[in-house]
Design brief:
17% of the residues lie in helices and 31% in strands.
C-alpha cells in the first residue's frame, strides 16, 4: 500500500533570472550553463505576442487539451491523485522581496488581471516506494493563457533577484510548517520566446525534494514544468520531454 506524501508547495510560474541564472533568450544558443551571461532583452517587439499558433490566447478547454498525459511522458508514469506538487502564494514566501523571483507579488498580481485560463496536471512514477526516505518521482505541468501578451519584463525584473535570493522560505498552507528553498540555474534548451531552467532544493523536516522548474513564455501563454524527486535528482530528459509535449499541444490544439 502506498503511503501518501505531504504535498510540496511550489509555484505555477517562475521568473527569468539574469546573468548566470538560467536566462535563455530567443537569440541565444540552444543551451547555456550557469556561467552564461544573458542580458535583458531590449526588443520591445518580444512583448507583442501573437494571435496565431502556440502563442495565441486560449480558453481552458484548449489549454487542458495541450497538457501532456502520463503516457506522453513515458512508460511507468501515472496520474498523481495527491497532487503532490502544488502552487503557493506570495504571502507564503519569506523574505517577501524574493517572491518576484517565482513570479509572485505585485507584478504577477497585475498580470493575473488579464488571465483567461489556468490548468494543471499532476503525474507520478507508478513504482514510487512508500515514504519516508525513499526516492520518489512527482511532476506537475501548468499552462496559463492571458488576454494580453505575457510580459517579458517580469522575467527580467525577477532575474535581478537571483543573486539576493539563493535561499528563501515557503510556508506550507496545509500544515503551517516552513520549508527552506535553495535556488540555482541549470542548463536547458531554449524553447518558445523565453525559457527559464531553475533547480529548487527543498529541505523538509524529514526529507529533501529537488525540483527542476522550467518556465516557457509563448506569446500570450506560459508553460511550467515542475519535475520533482524526493531524495534524488530529477531526470532532465523527462523534464524536457514534458515541456516539449506541452508546447506541441499548444500548437496543435484547434
Amino acid at each position: 500500500m502506498r503511503h501518501p506524501a505531504r504535498p510540496v508547495a511550489l509555484v505555477a510560474a517562475l521568473a527569468l533570472p539574469l546573468a548566470g541564472c538560467g536566462l535563455l533568450d530567443r537569440d541565444e544558443p540552444a543551451r547555456t550553463d550557469s556561467s552564461t551571461s544573458s542580458p535583458a532583452s531590449q526588443d520591445s517587439s518580444e512583448d507583442l505576442g501573437t494571435l496565431t499558433g502556440a502563442g495565441r490566447p486560449m480558453d481552458e478547454g484548449g489549454l487542458r487539451a495541450a497538457l501532456p498525459a502520463a503516457s506522453d511522458i513515458g512508460d511507468g508514469w501515472e496520474e498523481d491523485p495527491m497532487k503532490t506538487v502544488s502552487e503557493t502564494a506570495a504571502a507564503q514566501v519569506t523574505p517577501a522581496s524574493c517572491a518576484p523571483l517565482i513570479q509572485k507579488g505585485p507584478g504577477w498580481d497585475e498580470v493575473k488581471q488579464s488571465e483567461r485560463a489556468r490548468v494543471q496536471v499532476n503525474i507520478q512514477r507508478d513504482d514510487n516506494p512508500p515514504p519516508p526516505g525513499t526516492e520518489r518521482h512527482h511532476m506537475a505541468v501548468w499552462a496559463y493563457s492571458f488576454d494580453d501578451p505575457y510580459p517579458t519584463r517580469l522575467f527580467d525584473e525577477a532575474g535581478a533577484l537571483i543573486a539576493d535570493c539563493p535561499t528563501f522560505d515557503v510556508k506550507q498552507e496545509d500544515t503551517g510548517n516552513t520549508s527552506s528553498y535553495e535556488a540555482s540555474a541549470i542548463s536547458f534548451p531554449q524553447l518558445g520566446d523565453r525559457t527559464l531552467a531553475l533547480r529548487l532544493k527543498i529541505q523538509q523536516t524529514f526529507e529533501t525534494m529537488t525540483i527542476d522548474f522550467v518556465v516557457i513564455k509563448v506569446g500570450h501563454n506560459t508553460v511550467t514544468v515542475a519535475n520533482g524527486t524526493y531524495n534524488g535528482t530529477p531526470d532532465e530528459a523527462v523534464t524536457e520531454k514534458a515541456a516539449r509535449s506541452a508546447l506541441a499541444g499548444l500548437e496543435e490544439t484547434p
